[in-house]
Amino acid sequence: MSFFDLDIPARTAEKYGAEVLYDEPMKEHTTFRIGGACDMMIKINCEALLRDLMQCCKECGIPYYIIGRGSNVLISDNGLKGVVLLLGSDFAAAHISGNVIECQAGALLSAVCGLALDNSLTGLEFAYGIPGTVGGAVYMNAGAYGGEMKDVIQSCRYIDENGEIRTVSCDKMELGYRHSIFTDTDRCITSVSLKLENGDKGAIKERMDTLMARRKEKQPLEYPSAGSTFKRPAGDFAARLIEASNLKGLSVGGAQVSEKHSGFIVNKNGASFEDVRALIGMVKERVYSDTGVMLECEVLIME
């Protein structure tokens, strides 16, 4: 039972015509398919609502969590106390102006890639198949197959720690490996401008299809997961270290180090939050014991 006054964010959401859900299972909103119920979920439908909710939660001492597709999080089976601000389909508009795609933070990266393809714009092919939102991809500078979001970002709008709406250009975003100026802060991305190049539609589609085929061949897409579980250690690969420690296939409850790609921990059979967290701990401990390398978890653990 929550001891927070949830009537205040509920009234704010009502003012903007946003949908409010109570006791919503978070497993329905994460790619791991794990997570208990939150006290309240509000489906964000505009930037002003997001700003007002962030401010009112801070002023009222109500914990809040900003979630997109939930593709890089592990949420406790006990759920989340407070308010979940969902940047999803109600905050996912995207349109093209010349060779620039303007999109709200909740737009699915795959949908934006499809929009680029439809308009013969190249540069975003590397992101095809990354299961997240544009906002989440910018937040962590997502990348794959030789490309990163920093290669295509022009600028983005965000809400800062004081509730001010600001715009920042790509060169001021400190984009590095799984890092940006938004990482581990109270800032929240609201929209992104992606600058692409004119290209050949057939060649763009061929590149997307090739990369998707590689994903299906090498990654355990048949099971729920949060993608790569660990960050890449300097000068090496987490998957290689895990495999060298003979951990491929190791299981705790319903969680398993993928037999297809040891860099993934998958929800193979109704895994619990504790199953996954225990398995992460075992992998880190064994790899450190064997190699002296302490793997850093890429997945955000929320409890």
What topology, given as strand order, has the largest sheet? 6-7-13-11-12
Could you say which structural class the secondary elements and strand pairing correspond to?
A: alpha+beta
Spans of at least 5 consecutive residues whose pLDDT stays below 50 are: none
- Tell me the number of structural domains: 3
Helix and strand pattern = HEEHEEEEEHEHEEEEEEHEHEEEHE
Q: What is the count of DSSP helices, taking H or I runs of 4+ residues?
A: 7
CATH class of the largest domain: Alpha Beta
Q: How large, in whole angstroms, is the Cα Rg?
A: 20 Å
Main sheet attributes: strand count, strand direction, barrel closure? 5 strands, antiparallel
At the fold tier of CATH, the topology name of the largest domain is Uridine Diphospho-n-acetylenolpyruvylglucosamine Reductase, domain 3
Present the secondary structure layout.
Blueprint: H1 7-15, E1 20-25, E2 37-43, H2 47-60, E3 64-67, E4 73-75, E5 80-86, E6 94-97, E7 100-104, H3 109-118, E8 121-122, H4 134-139, E9 143-144, E10 147-148, E11 153-159, E12 165-169, E13 188-195, E14 197-198, H5 201-218, E15 225-228, H6 238-244, E16 251-252, E17 255-257, E18 264-267, H7 273-291, E19 300-302
Parallel strand pairs: 2-5, 3-5, 4-19
Antiparallel strand pairs: 1-2, 6-7, 7-13, 8-14, 9-10, 11-12, 11-13, 15-18, 16-17, 17-18
Helix pairs in contact: 1-2
